[in-house]
Amino acid sequence: RFSIEFEVNRILGAGGFGIVFEGINVIDNCRYAVKRVSVKSSHIDKALREVRTMALLDHPGIVRYNNTWIEKPPAGWQYEFDMELFKKRIYLHSNAGECDFDASIKIFIQICKKSLAE
Predict the structure, then answer these.
(1) Which of these, 98, 72, 27, 58, lies nearest to 107 by C-alpha position?
(2) What residues does ATP bind to (predicted)?
(3) CA distance 19 to 38
(4) ∠ at Cα 118 (34, 113), nearest 5°?
């Protein structure tokens, strides 16, 4: 769903719990922050409790919650390994003045979409 419904603009942040992307929803053409989190099947209930709590929050200092869905990663996707390799590669290239991380992640995502479709 993520790769179908969103055009990724850039990475807003990354951490131990996942990556937050800025993306445009291709259906409503609105800009969203989308957090992708890898959750073990044994921890889904805990993650859903957190989601339900986030849905209740309404404060100007907190990013508004809109939606949640559960999906399996595409076949062959090795998130942790790919991101570590990609970060190291982008770090080396950005120090050489070739490309910044946000621009490169967009290119990387497009390449992955293409290679998975083939």
Answers:
(1) 98
(2) 35
(3) 10
(4) 15
Contact assessment for residue 21 and residue 36, using Cβ atoms and an 8 Å cutoff: yes
- Give the pLDDT score at 114: 47
What residues does each domain of the chain span?
A: 2-117
Return the number of other C-beta atoms located less than 10 Å from residue 115's C-beta.
9
Query: CB burial class (10 A; 0-12, 13-18, 19+) of residue 111?
Result: exposed
Architecture label for domain 2-117: 2-Layer Sandwich (3.30)
Report the binding-site residues for ATP: 35
Annotation: binding site: 35
| Contact partners, residue 6, CB within 8 Å, separation at least 6 | 21, 23, 24, 25, 26, 32, 34
> Hey, how many other C-beta atoms are within 10 angstroms of the C-beta on 105?
21
Say whether 75 sits in a helix, a strand or coil.
Answer: coil
What CA–CA distance (Å, rounded) separates 33 from 13? 10
